Amino acid sequence: MGTSRSTNPRIAAGILALAAITTLIGGAFAGLVVEGVQDTSGALAAFDPYLFRVVRFTLWQALLSTALSVIPAIFVARALSRHPNFPGRALILRLFAVPLALPAIVAALGVLALYGRAGYFADLFGSISGQSWPGIYGLSGILVAHVFFNLPLATRFFLEALDIVPADQWRLASQLGMGARSAFRLIEWPAMRASLPGIAGLVFMLCITSFTIVLTLGGGPRATTLEVAIYQSLRFDFDPARAVALTVLQIALTMAVVAALMRLGANLAGDANLSVAPRRFVSASKQETAFNSVLLALALLFVAGPMLATVIAGLDAELLRLAGETAVRQATGTSIVLASLAALLSAALALSLVMARRALALRRGKQHQTLLESVVDTGAGFVLVVPPIVIGAGWFVLLRHFGDVFAVAPVMVVTVNAVMAMPFAIRAIRPAHDAASERHERLCAQLGISGWNRLRLVEWPVLRRPLMTALAFAMALSLGDLGVIALFGSDAVQTLPYLLLARMGSYRTDDAAGLALLLGLLCLALMMLADRLGKDFLPR
Amino acid sequence: MTTGAAIRLDHVAFSYGEAAMNFDAAIEASAITAVMGPSGSGKSTLLNLIAGFETPQAGRILISGMDVTRLEPAARPVSMVFQENNLFAHLSVEQNVGLGRSPALRLAAEDREAVAGALDRTGLAGKEKRLPRELSGGERQRVALARVLVRDRPVLLLDEPFAALGPALRDDMLDLVQGVHEERKMTVVLVTHRPEDARRVAQRMIFLDNGTVAASGETEFFFEPDGPAAFRRYIGTEQKVALPPEIARKTT
């Protein structure tokens, strides 16, 4: 199109955003390289048998978590799809959206409150096994928490795949008298199999980079993943060379997984929206209905259990005393300020990249994508390859040469969380922005609406809601994050998750439960806001 | 008030993916010219080039003798009405028309007067505060025409703006265009795929085929038995229906 001259500010904004992201990630890599060069022997010495045990455990727990999440999800999704009028179906779907909003540390606490040594089930399990219940720490705890997060996620993805099956196929199936078994074999399984590699890959990726859950539930060197080992080498052993070795391994591992995922065409940014089931023509037999009911009830109990435990344990805590504590108030204030800033930065980065991508696509017309456009387009997804701990670790080893590492905590928390939430913000903003651009581009060019006028009269009314969605989503993600603050946090700068971890560490379980409830409710409220705002922002 | 301006496409070359186009045409000032041709022949591209949404790879576009080839769309003496998406969905009828006066939507008293007058002229009085989604398809295109009136540019390009409307409504809209043309005498270029529309309002016609001007001239000349062969092939059976019944009978 001939409108390139008036779109240059948009491209410039995108380049600026790319530069900022590159600086953040590049700085981290620079830190790692400098450290590696300075202490090469130390970094190489870190490749000891212990490290390989850590790598093995990282992979093993991710593999188990994936299998335990994805395989049951196939059957839960199928049950949900075959019983569109199942009582409580809407509730289940709504509940299955909650883990996506919950901070990992809150979920970890919920799992402990339920299955821990002093958990609600401890007496029951103790009387069954005939000895005192040791609580689930280590691999079992990690698996339960990972499944709590990823079973609902995988279920929702599979359900989406099933919802794409055209209604006519179901009509045909019922006309031909297909039973449950043949309908699964001929219709449902092919639909789900297509998305299986992508879903399994995504879950595997999430589990391999999982930090908070392994930190809080892993308990000890026998159940440590690379991310937690990076954290320990920096915060406890203070062995930067070792951290470099671990980080390089972590990056190599995630790169390999992501490369595999890209080949499978997985979508790395999850979606918080619920799907609506189309009309079905399925008549399930009595046995099948019974089986599915039991399956759904079990899934519901498994997912709702830790949530309920969080609420009950939280209400048991002395909430009023907690709310009166200066440390709690300060941490809440710090969390909200940092998360708001991260959300604003995240939305600004996302909007810049979205606008630049569109402007570049318009400028080239039908010609091939330029390198810049493809970087702006897909580059955003690549930040997911680099876990927050890795960026944090890189800057940590770099900045310690220049003074107090802990003084930059707020900057690190804001920037890293902003970049981490960016792919989700892009997903919220881009469809509305591109659709609006599609409709308005020629009109704006003709009427000479550009720059500030265009932002005010054309973009803002259309993008207001998706921007709010992106802000709320990004804010919820940063509020719950423990990765960066675990590295950079100190008594001077504490966020809610950091304070929660500290209280857990000093065995003040009641306080932790109260804080978890507070944090969980905050994030849930933000996610509900994001979901509500995101529902109908496309103009009719 | 401006009157029409002549348009000249001087060996304008443009390629769109595989399809290469080369237009050389003169469009008469203050006339209504219909542009016809098979799909993919370049009708919309021709209009997009004149409006400035596409930039030619070679050649010049002159309006009123002035070279506009490198001008931004907003700087050209041209208004264009598209088949759809002529309105901002979140702005009222009044605001959508007002944008024709000020891209910042800062309207002086006389601008408001012009907007009210244009809405009146297009039969939209009383609907000023409505949003586009509260209007019918025909009314939306009337809003677009009202904006054309307040912009008051010497050239009006219509890219099949009434194709989605029913027959009676389409005739009303063509009458409106014709009426406005009589008052303002701007140069109107109308892309259509219906020969009867061209015959109804256009004095002149351009027939495009395969990215070039295959024929141009008086509209009536095209419909004569010895009119351009390419055009006669294009309308084929449609012409038989359009002709008087006794001729149609002879051919059977």
Structure description:
- The complex is a heterodimer of chains A (540) and B (252).
- Chain A has 540 residues and is mainly α.
- Chain A folds into two domains: 1-38 and 317-540, Orthogonal Bundle (MetI-like fold); 41-315, MetI-like fold (Orthogonal Bundle), CATH 1.10.3720.10.
- Chain A is built from 22 helices and no strands.
- The radius of gyration of chain A is 24 Å and the shape is globular.
- Chain A has helices at 4-38, 40-45, 49-82, 89-101, 104-115, 122-129, 139-163, 167-175, 180-208, 212-218, 226-235, 240-264, 286-316, 319-324, 326-364, 371-382, 388-399, 409-447, 451-480, 483-488, 496-505, 509-535.
- Chain B is an alpha/beta fold and 252 residues long.
- Chain B has two domains: 7-77 and 154-251, Rossmann fold, CATH 3.40.50; 87-152.
- Helices cover 37% and strands 23% of the residues of chain B.
- Chain B contains ten helices and ten strands.
- Chain B is globular.
- The relative contact order of chain B is 0.18.
- Chain A binds chain B through residues 1-3, 5-6, 365-366, 438-440, 442-443, 445-450, 453, 457-458, 461-462, 539-540, and chain B through 16-17, 51-55, 72-75, 78-80, 82, 85-86, 88-91, 99-100, 103-105, 133.
- Chain A: It is found in: Cell inner membrane; Cell membrane.
